[in-house]
Structures are given as structure tokens and as C-alpha cells.
Design a protein that fits this description.
This protein is an alpha/beta fold. Helices cover 14% and strands 17% of the residues. Strand 3 (58-61), helix 2 (63-66) and strand 4 form a beta-alpha-beta unit. The mean pLDDT is 75.
Length: 105
């Protein structure tokens, strides 16, 4: 029986906000790798964002930065946390209603 491959969880910050400080997270010393993608203020075009996010499990992102790349987010990403309250910008500007599936439980 072979041992399961263990990977180091990756949390990526995609934000122009300087007060979103990953060093203040209580998980900092728990073996999680943190990385930052900090575009210049006003810069909404991030070439190859999908490649930059590849390997990340959690992304903490400004809605206007992640929204344009919504359909190119790598499958490694399991959770996206917005730095903004609400999801209206992503829902109304970046989500294609024909690609949204409804589930009835």
C-alpha cells in the first residue's frame, strides 16, 4: 500500500487592498503556503490569471479582478472568498445565465 501524496494547501490573495494581510491569518503557521498577486490600482487586466492561480485551493480576491476570469479558474481552486461584501458584481456582470445550473432538493 503506497502512502497518499500529501500536498501543501495554497492560499492566494488577488487584491489591490493593502489591508488584506495574509500574515494576520491564524493559519499562518499551519503549513499552508500563502502567495500574493497584487496588480497595480486600476489594473483590471491580469494576463494568464488562470496559470497564476493554478495550484491554489483558496483564493481571496477583489470581485472586479476575479470576475472577468470566472470561467478560466483552474480546477485546483475549491473556494473563492471575496474581499467585498456581496456577489452582485460577479452575478450581474460576469456570470453567464446559460451556464448556471439549478438544482432542486
Amino acid at each position: 500500500m503506497s502512502a497518499a501524496k500529501q500536498t501543501i494547501p495554497v492560499v492566494t490573495k488577488l487584491s489591490v487592498l493593502k489591508d488584506v494581510d495574509l500574515n494576520k491569518l491564524p493559519l499562518r503557521s499551519s503549513g499552508i503556503y500563502f502567495r500574493k498577486i497584487e496588480p497595480a490600482a486600476g489594473d483590471m487586466a491580469i494576463p494568464n490569471l488562470g496559470e497564476l492561480l493554478d495550484g491554489s485551493e483558496i483564493v481571496i480576491a477583489d470581485a472586479h479582478l476575479i470576475g472577468p476570469h470566472w470561467y478560466n479558474i483552474p480546477s485546483s481552486v475549491k473556494w473563492i472568498q471575496s474581499t467585498w461584501a456581496g456577489v452582485d458584481l460577479i452575478r450581474t456582470c460576469y456570470i453567464n445565465p446559460s451556464k448556471v445550473y439549478s438544482y432542486i432538493f
